[in-house]
Amino acid sequence: MIDFAVFVVMSVLESSAVFYLAFKIFKIDLYPKEIVFAGIVMAFISYVLRNTYQLSEIDVIVQFALMICFIWLLFRIHLFYAIIMTGMCYQLYMLIQSLLFLLMESLGISDFRFHHITIGIYLLQVFNVAGASGIGYWVGKRRKGFDFIPDKPDEKIHIGTQEKVLFILSFPSVLAVLIMLRLAQNNSKLFFCVPLFYALILFGYLILSNKKNRGDDFGQPGS
């Protein structure tokens, strides 16, 4: 019962942190009750998939799809942009997590256990939530971020070259998380490649999003 309660609480915190990060980065109003509701639904589904059916890899795909659906249907963001938002913020969150994991591994605190509970995992989640929330708060406080995403799901949108590339960049998110899980489980020395991959993809996101925010497009002079 304790395992279940801790799992649900930490999952809700993590999901809420990703939503918070996404809404701050893309300058969208926050809806705390809806965010917590979405987090609870995602947490229960995740617990069943991971602990009842031992389907961790499938859970990654399901969680990614659920976040897209919630941003689209609950928070009323166009489906096309919901995918872009989820992809970008998932990869930023995973970049933070992979860097923290490497740090904790180097300090030897990733495998701490208390009775049958792996404290190291929960420490990683707590630090990850704090890091993501801190970045989101800083982005909002400094009025950074992007405002090119319409807040109406049925609004007609123009899909240009930059939007298409941003959309394509969203799909490595799930694959990268699956690879990160496998490398972490096998204690692979190649794990350091994971944050490098995330950083590279996010760099592409930031460049394209900045151009889109300024109204630039490929092929324009000076873009």
One letter per element, helices H and strands E, the order comes to HHHHEEHHHH
Class by helix and strand content?
A: mainly alpha
What value does the average pLDDT take?
87
Overall shape: it is globular
Radius of gyration: 18 Å
Can you give the helix content as a percent range? over 70%
Q: N-to-C terminal Cα separation, in Å?
A: 56 Å
Unreliable stretches (pLDDT < 50, length at least 5) are 219-223
Main pleated sheet: 2 strands, antiparallel
Which percent band covers the strand fraction? under 5%
* Count, helices: 8
For this structure, the quaternary state is single chain
Strands side by side in the biggest sheet: 1-2
Question: Got a strand count?
Answer: 2
Summarize this structure as a short list of keywords or feature phrases.
223 residues, mainly alpha, disordered C terminus, two-stranded antiparallel sheet
Task: Characterize the structure shown.
The chain is mainly alpha-helical and 223 residues long. 72% of the residues lie in helices and 2% in strands. It contains eight helices and two strands. It has a two-stranded antiparallel ribbon. A hairpin with a 2-residue loop joins β1 and β2. α4 packs antiparallel against α8. The model is unreliable at 219-223 (pLDDT under 50).
